[in-house]
Design goal:
30 helices; alpha/beta; eight-stranded parallel sheet
Length: 792
């Protein structure tokens, strides 16, 4: 029986932690566990046998870090093959090839490109399938774009099923800001076979995340929780939850509909045996997931059902001379400004069309999608008549996009539907076919039915199809405006699909276009229009939108309507004044807040004509960074936006450095800080973010990198007379090296203060390793540094 057949009949049980068991078996601190497949195969086999004896259906291979950034590339095939053979030797029902994250930030946050990540994942799974794996388990993922690269690598290079689990923090989001709703809608659209959560928290703490997944998942949901939160006792990492307590919490999840369970950090065969007993006495729960039409970005979902949502139309070169010029000159900063203005004005989704005959549209689409997603969190509509450009945009898009468009022509559907199915999007269908645009609502409805029916043949459900009834110009085809409204009603009442329409078409060739557009919007919404394509910078139209949201009970207590109306009254009642440019402070601060890194250097140079570098730092950099930090702490923006703002400041700081060099001055620093990821630990994502943010706040950072020998840390502290040191560790196995590093520094007669951080660290670990401060994130490290050096 294949694993996908088995999951249709019963719940499945994974094994528990491999790292926890290897540590008990004597895994040396800092050694990658995967090498044990070659050096100590009997130890790995013994652990697998113990889990099978406990009742596990699926054994996970010892390959979590088996990628070329962490292991010797030439040994990867041997390590992966050995891992699968060792798992098979335990004779489980199924063997899951375990594939974790690469350990680097994806562009635009970091330097790892989508294609590089794809290649690393593909390299592994090709070997895994050949060696006999039954399924791939993507686990402990936090970046949705990296996860997408992994899913595509598996699908395009193997026939293996995919189970995928992401890891969520206590705030209910992953490290880079993905929430469970966004995760489940995106991943199931990409075609994974099971979706869920693992690591980070215990089963009790994960309950809200799991409940959200169960509500929307149309595929099996899986949970592999930690055995609670780790504590440090006598120098050892201890998980306090007992197998019975763990089982009780997991049983609650199974009773709610979780179909695949197992264990992560801290769990042992005793935990798996407890889960076996639970599954054997618990029937499979039949779930009825909520069916929604939704598009997502990497950190935000827009549910389109039962609400008026707006698609911003301004990133489209048709009739826009300035945008055409920007596209020809590869001036992406202009596109980013247009994106930000539309989101601030109220757009829920942004249309991205970069089609010009004289440019490489596919390349430009990739760049535009990646850069726009770096500074805004709203989902995008990938819009092109170029099939290659649509596929490129869909491939590199982070989330579940809206794809514009397909029509009723057989050729169009044959080209577009495979792209939509493969990359997991919502498709926009136009009611035209080989005969053109029908003149009756009934004929347009017939085309829509054909589009929906053909989509279903490709495996695209009706909720992932939206229909555009096509708005014709009132100036030339006045009678057809009513036909469009009639079609909207038929699409809603007879076909039951959501609708999209471009409003600006109706007013083409007429005066007072904003009035015509907003009036048609009101009529369209009454007829069933759910998602109009609009210019959100039109105040007349946005006033109509706000009024409609009150009328249709979407603006609770008319809060937004009242707020915007009061703001307009204040403006209207203010005294007339000549048009003035924004103040320098507002301009530079705004650029930093929005992450417009391409524009900050020029304005910084301009400011240097009237202000000193210190004034620029204190008046503009620090207030902007403090505001960004506050929004990050409150969950109003996420890691990608935090990094973009930090990079915007970094670009400005490069201008200040050049100024200092040209004037023979030294760049003033608040203090010198040494950073290092400790010996044996090759994870440096967190450390790199800390470095960037500390430098933004004016601290000089000496970065020793990752896997730094203890002796190197000691010598660099002595040479540089360092007073504050930041040490990072991601794995519990390397926390001991953090302790050893601090002790070695003290033994050398040096007395700096230490702050420590990393995914596994907490206050208890800080005390264990002998550090002075615990920094839970990059912003906390800034607060510690400010306090240490007496910076106001």
């Amino acid at each position: 029986m294949k694993i996908l057949d088995a999951i249709k009949e019963k719940q499945l049980l994974f094994d528990g932690a491999m790292g926890t068991m290897l540590q008990k078996k004597g895994l040396p601190v800092g050694l990658e566990p995967e090498y044990f497949n070659l050096t100590h195969p009997e130890v790995v086999t013994e652990i697998h046998h113990a889990y099978v004896a406990a009742g596990a259906d699926i054994i996970t291979t010892n390959t979590f870090q088996a990628n070329r950034t962490k292991l010797e590339q030439e040994k990867l095939p041997e390590i992966i093959t050995a891992a699968i053979q060792l798992a098979k030797a335990a004779e489980p029902s199924f063997v899951a090839y375990d594939m974790g994250p690469i350990g680097q930030l994806m562009a635009p946050m970091g330097t790892l490109s989508f294609d590089q990540a794809y290649d690393m994942f593909a390299e592994q799974v090709i070997v895994a399938e050949k060696a006999g794996a039954d399924v791939v388990i993507l686990e402990t993922m936090s970046d949705l774009l990296e996860t997408k690269a992994a899913v595509l690598a598996v699908k395009e290079n193997t026939e293996l099923p995919i189970f995928c689990t992401m890891t969520f923090q206590e705030d209910g989001r992953t490290f880079v800001g993905t929430d469970p709703l966004t995760a489940v809608l995106t991943l199931q659209s990409l075609g994974v076979d099971a979706v869920g959560v693992n690591c980070s928290l215990g089963p009790v703490e994960l309950l809200p995340v799991v409940e959200t997944m169960l509500r929307y998942a149309k595929i099996p949901v899986m949970v592999q929780a930690n055995a609670g939160l780790p504590e440090m006792t006598d120098g050892q990492t201890v998980y306090r939850i007992s197998p019975v307590e763990y089982g009780q919490a997991v049983e609650t999840l199974v009773q709610k509909g979780v179909q695949i369970v197992g264990g992560c950090c801290g769990t042992t065969p005793e935990f798996i045996k407890e889960l076996r007993n639970i599954l054997d006495r618990t029937a499979v729960v039949e779930r009825q997931p909520e069916i929604v039409t939704a598009v997502t970005s990497g950190s935000q979902t827009v549910l389109l059902n039962n609400r008026l949502s707006l698609i911003g139309e301004r990133i489209n070169p048709t009739g826009k001379k300035r945008l055409k010029e920007a596209l020809r000159n590869n001036e992406l900063s202009y596109l980013l400004k247009e994106a930000l203005k539309q989101v601030e004005a109220g757009a829920d989704i942004l249309d991205v069309n970069v089609g010009l005959p004289e440019i490489d549209e596919s390349r430009m689409m990739q760049q535009a999608v990646q850069e726009i997603q770096g500074i805004v969190t709203v989902p995008l509509q990938i819009d092109s008549s170029n099939i290659a450009a649509i596929e490129t945009g869909a491939r590199y898009y982070n989330g579940k996009p809206l794809i514009n468009s397909v029509n009723g022509k057989a050729e169009s559907m044959a080209e577009i539907f495979p792209i939509v199915k493969k990359y997991g999007g919502v498709v926009l269908g136009l009611t035209l076919d080989e005969t053109g645009i029908p003149e009756t609502a009934e004929a347009r409805l017939a085309i829509a039915k054909r589009i929906v029916g053909t989509a279903a043949e490709y495996g695209i459900p009706k909720e992932d199809v939206m229909i555009d009834p096509l708005v014709l110009t009132a100036s030339a085809q006045q009678a057809q405006v009513q036909v469009t409204l009639d079609t909207l009603s038929l699409l809603r009442d007879e076909l039951g699909v959501l609708t999209v329409a471009g409003l600006s078409n109706v007013s083409f060739g007429l005066p007072n276009r904003e009035l015509m557009n907003s009036t048609f919007l009101a009529a369209g919404v009454a007829a069933g229009l759910s998602t109009p394509i609009v210019n959100p910078l039109s105040e007349v139209l946005m006033n109509t939108v706000r009024a409609l949201k009150v009328i249709y009970n979407q603006d609770l207590d008319a809060a937004e309507y009242i707020e915007k109306s009061q703001a307009m009254n204040v403006v209207a009642e203010s005294k007339p004044a000549s048009k003035q440019a924004s103040t320098d402070a507002t301009d530079l601060k705004t650029l930093i807040l929005k992450g417009q890194k391409e524009d900050t250097p020029a304005l910084t140079k301009q400011l240097l004509e009237t202000k000193t570098p210190l004034e620029i730092v204190n008046e503009f950099f620090i207030p902007a960074l403090d505001e960004v930090g506050g929004k990050f702490e409150r969950g109003e923006l996420f890691l990608p936006q935090l990094i973009q703002s930090a990079e915007a400041v970094q670009r400005s700081q490069e201008v200040l450095k050049s100024y200092f060099d040209a004037h023979g001055q030294e760049n003033q620093s608040h203090g010198k800080i040494l950073l290092a990821t400790v010996e044996g630990d090759i994870h440096d994502i967190g450390k790199n973010i800390v470095k960037m943010v500390l430098e933004n706040y004016g601290f000089e950072v000496i970065d020793l990198g990752k896997d730094v020998p203890i002796g190197t840390v000691v010598e660099r502290i002595r040479e540089g007379n360092i007073q504050l040191v930041g040490l990072s560790a991601l794995m519990t196995t390397t926390v001991q090296n953090m302790k050893a590093t601090i002790q070695a520094v003290k033994d050398a007669g040096l007395a700096p203060s230490f702050m420590v951080g990393g995914a596994v660290l907490n206050e208890e670990y800080r005390e264990f390793v002998g550090a002075d401060y615990y920094a839970k994130d990059a912003l906390e490290s800034v607060a510690i540094a400010k306090k240490f050096f007496g910076v106001e």
